[in-house]
Amino acid sequence: LVHRNNDLPLVALHKETACYANAVRQSYIPSLGVILRTTDKTVWANEFEPIELTCLIESISTNNPRIEWKKIQNGVPSYVYFQNQISGDLEHRAQLIQPANLLILNTSRADTAEYRCEVAAIDDHKHFDEILISLAVRVKPVVPRCSVPVAVTVGTSSELRCLENEGFPASQYRWFRNNEELPQDPKSSPKFINSTYSINADTGGLKFRRMRKEDAGEYYCQAKNVAGHAQCPTQLMDVYDVDIVGIFLKVLAALAGFIVMMLGVCHVQKHHCFSSGKDHTGTK
């Protein structure tokens, strides 16, 4: 408030009041500039689900600022939102949520990229600002390809394989026998403490150093990441004992066949020799 001085003329008093009000106004109105922020600079989304990239305008004085979104892949930018419309590969899958958030309605693995929100405000003291957001789209694994031997022999080594290449992030693998998960370390479970297998969760390999009868069963593998999981069909693996009697009989049969063959050869040669001798001695 201005205290009136009775000694001043009325015109001078008005001038004094106006100058004081102008000084107050200039001291309290800041020089505004556009300032942006986001709730998260690194965003994860599941494939086929919606995700919103936030570009929040904290400070601005321009009534109609220019808002643009760009997608940057391999260092190359392309327009996502330009001249008040969605463009590019998000044309029918995204929309701008006022004032400047970008909503992707149906994300795909191709949307994994960096996104830059740019706001230009020509009436502001700081007339431009931008913010960069990294989007990674998680992809559920597909059914892995599994390789399980049909039959192995006790005491031999063997390997079961499992692999899928579609999931993102890369899948981790687990193996099941008779619908029971095999522990990563067999020594950690009393039930599997005598097993000789090892599991590589990164590659999907299940290796046995020495097969046991107890290792027979129905096996399947599961590929899993944060987006979901998938598993291959169950496959049966039999483990057979070493058949000593069977091996002996096979060797004996092979030896008998060799003897019969040699006797036949000798018989033919002996008959040939006698025939030759008879031709040379005439009647003898």
From TrEMBL:
A GO cellular-component term linked to this record? plasma membrane
Q: Which SMART domains match?
A: IG, IGc2
One GO term under biological process is: cell migration
Chief location category: other
Q: Does the keyword Lipid metabolism apply?
A: no
Membrane topology (UniProt) = Single-pass type I membrane protein
TM spans, by residue?
244-268
Compartment annotation: Cell junction, Tight junction; Cell membrane
Q: Which UniProt keywords apply?
A: Cell junction, Cell membrane, Disulfide bond, Immunoglobulin domain, Membrane, Signal, Tight junction, Transmembrane, Transmembrane helix
Superkingdom is Eukaryota
Entry's family note: Belongs to the immunoglobulin superfamily.
Q: What is this protein called?
A: Junctional adhesion molecule 3
Which species is this record about? Oncorhynchus kisutch (Coho salmon)
Upper taxonomic lineage:
Eukaryota, Metazoa, Chordata, Craniata, Vertebrata
